[in-house]
Structures are given as C-alpha cells and as structure tokens.
Model the fold of this input.
Amino acid sequence: MSDAVKPRYFMLIAQLCLALLAIPFLYAAPPAQGRILLIPVTRSASLSLAPAAIAHGARLVEAGPWKGSLLVEGQGRTLALSMLSRGVLPLAARVGGCGEKP
Done:
C-alpha cells in the first residue's frame, strides 16, 4: 500500500467513527422544548431533583422508568445546563421508553 492511500483510509475511518458516536448523542439529546427524562447520577442529585427542576421552569409529568428519575416538560437548553451542573443527566424522553402513549 502506498503512502498516498493511507491518509485517505485514515480520514474515512475517522469520519465513520465520528458518525457512529454522534448518532446516539443526537438521539439522546434533550429537545429544545418538550418532554425530558431527568436521571440523577448522585444521591444528593436525587434528593433535590424535583425542586431543582421546578426552579428552572420544568413541569413535572410523572416518575421516570428508573428509580429516582423524573419525566418533565420544559425548555431543553435551560434545564439541561442547570441539571448537568447538579449531577443529573437530561435525556430525550424517547430514550427511556417514556414517549407518548399509544
């Protein structure tokens, strides 16, 4: 294999890896507005999850599918940034299997 061909394969592999990593991230990213699943990562985050979400404009919908998680409606960007700093993982509601009921 010549040296001129190797960089082309490297770039192709790099692009494929980037796409494989980006697709799940984009699928799980919270929406700009709508239902967001909040998953506490630490014990202290789970204790203050509901009050913190409400303080940042979220409306509680129901308990999430995992222990301590909550399904809320709100502004994705505002809620996501504040929740991440508190140890809470915000995800799109469809990831946790808590989208619209049929």
Notes: The beta strands are 33-40, 59-63, 70-75, 88-92. The longest strand covers residues 33-40.
